[in-house]
Amino acid sequence: MNIRQIQEARELYGIDGWGAGYFGINDQGHVVANPTGEEHISVSLPEVMEEVRKKGLTAPLIIRFPQIIEGQLERMHSSFKNAIADNNFKGRHMGVFPFKVNQRREFIDAIVSAGRKVDYGLEVGSKTEFIAALGYKLQDNALMVCNGFKDAEFIEMGFIAKAMGKNVVMVVEGPDELQMIIDRAAHYKECPEIGLRVRLYSKGSGKWEKSSGAQSKFGLTTTEVIHALQMLEKANLKDKLAMLHFHIGSQITEIKRFKGALKEAARVYSKVIKIGFTPRYLNIGGGVGVDYDGSKTSFESSANYSLQEFANDAVYVLMEVCDNEAVPHPTIVTESGRVIAAYHSVVVTNIREVQGADVNIDADDILDLEHIDPTAHKALNELRYIVTSMNRKNYVEYYHDSIVYQEELFTLFNLGYLQLKDRAVAEELYYRICRKALYFSGFERHIQEEFENLQKVMVSKYLANFSIFQSIPDSWSINQLFPVMPLSRHDEKPSLKATIVDITCDSDGCLTTFIDRSDTKTVLELHPPSDSPYYIGFFLVGAYQESLANEHNLFGAIHEAEVHANQEGEWEITKITQGDPIDELLVSRNYDMTEITDAYSNQLNDAVAAGKMTEQSRNEIYDKLVQYTKGYPYLVEG
Ligand SMILES: Cc1ncc(COP(=O)(O)O)c(C=O)c1O
Questions:
Q1: Which terminus of the chain has fewer Cβ atoms in its 10 Å neighbourhood, N or C?
Q2: Span 422-432, mean pLDDT?
Q3: Is the pLDDT of residue 467 over 70?
Q4: How far is CA 380 from CA 385, 428, 573, in A?
């Protein structure tokens, strides 16, 4: 046990900051999850991987902790409960989970089951999500909020949901939608309750700032709100207006943006009441930020407030405005997704190889790198000399010389004057010179820019067995940062500086920016490969990543394992879901598997007829091909 090193690892990867009490490192140097947020109930992630291997599954894999979903729902609800009690606020809090944040069935099942205790409901933004949501039996009180642009079918489904006894609110995004509701109301016994999405002037902050403000594509302008109110009055449906809604964007990094929006929305709410309507829900949307880098700042990968601070401010601001306007306090509806979902899952994968470090082949066994060879080209011998005689005083000059020799040798090779082995010697020597130069540059108080740049080029590339496009698409599309770290060996100093590349055939499939509490960093400290599997975890990936995942290169959904821990600290894998097999991915792209296997069969028959193979090997090959069509598209061990 190397407690000092373990503490250093905690700081290096910032796990105590972003882990939010759900993740840490134990005394064995293993990353652990604390699914209930209690320190004594911990699950070693390397042990989960071992258990999963015994069940015949290989990385990549999502480990899900439904207890963390429950924990986050409770944290959200109790933060509001505390704030409501402290302020003597007269309304209550009701949460709905936005389906789009993670539509996986396993996830929504967990939300619905955890939500029963606190009347949590669902928010949907499309007909598909609505169809799925209608299948869930929520608590009678729990809300079903329908956002998003709607057609006649979507509106009709709202009436059906009402007839089924759901507490449904159709949030109107434009006057046409309201007209469709009004037209149908005459034909149904009961009309669903109606909400208006209001376009606020107040803007969010961070990457999703465009979702709000006067130029946003969402919500009704003030004139449209007044028009909608007149339409409701004329249709005799005034009492159906139950909700006003706003959402200023996801991952709001600064609490003051919320406060501004809440003040504005509370005024709109009060004024609507004052002109004779009776909305009782103020839906303040989602947007609560996740502190991905653990810095607790307004940096785009962080948030400068806690859940409790958010709830306190929401309750306080709403109360202040409502009291000032002398209108009743509303029920506060939250639609937070990211902060509820992000923590519950970890993508784990294994490293298949390390490129660029002196780890794969011992070049000294193959090449003579040391001895000056009088028959070799002068530039090669110069490189040999530089490697052995570089020191702290001459490293800059020698490094510059080596660039010239290296380029000279490269030209000679292209002109046909050097053998392949000479090229290999030149490559290897130059690589060693760069490493040595970097080593000496590390002693300088201010590292020269050229060595900083060299550092970026010289990092080891860790080939991770997964697809960034499938498992963390936001890192590719919007440069979102997620905490990344090895799952074990934290009692050992990580000696290599690395970037991560995935197994897709795409140069965008790489990670070259990593979280850091005071900045971001371009390298991740990792351990050199050993004989045991080296697992890397990508954390806080439970929100949006699975919904946005794309099957670039036809790498599909990865295997999943659900883990539960009990009060005695024992844990078990309660559910395994297999990832997408190759044939399903092909079918999803319109391939017909029977046609494909028939084509294999015909081609093999032709080969037998031409005497190129026996009947027996034809059958063996055919069976193998069919077996491969059912395989896992990722790199399997062995
Ligand atoms: C209308 C609406 N509600 C709720 C959310 C969830 O936001 P978040 O996941 O940031 O809490 C979104 C997502 O941006 C949204 O568009």
A1: C
A2: 93
A3: yes
A4: 9, 11, 58
Neighbouring C-beta atoms of residue 307, cutoff 10 Å: 18
At residue 365, the pLDDT reads 78
Local structure of 540: helix, strand or coil: coil
Using CA atoms, how far residue 523 sits from 111, 484, 510, 616, in Å, is: 36, 11, 12, 53
Ligand 1 pocket test: pick from 170, 335, 343 the residue with the most ligand atoms within 8 Å of its Cβ: 335
44 domain residue, yes or no: no
pLDDT (tens digit, 9 = 90+) per residue, 490-539? Answer: 999 998 889 999 999 998 999 999 999 888 998 999 999 898 999 999 99
Cβ 288 under 6 angstroms from ligand 1? yes
Q: How far is the centre of ligand 1, averaged over its atoms, from the C-alpha of 100 (Å)?
A: 8
Which CATH number belongs to the domain containing residue 435 in this structure? 1.20.58.930
Kindly give the residue spans of alpha helices, DSSP state H, lying in 552-632: 582-587, 593-609, 615-629
Which atom from ligand 1 is nearest to the alpha carbon of 341? Answer: 9
**In a shared domain, residues 194 and 287:** yes
Q: Which atom of ligand 1 is nearest to the CA of 289?
A: 10
Would you say residue 359 has pLDDT above 60? no
Domain that holds residue 614: 596-638
Burial class from Cβ neighbours inside 10 Å (0-12, 13-18, 19+) for residue 603 reads exposed
Q: Does residue 98 line the site of ligand 1, with CB under 6 A? A: yes
Going by alpha carbons, the residue nearest to atom 5 of ligand 1 is 286
Q: How confident is the model over 397-416, as a mean pLDDT?
A: 96
Q: Domain for residue 9, yes or no?
A: no
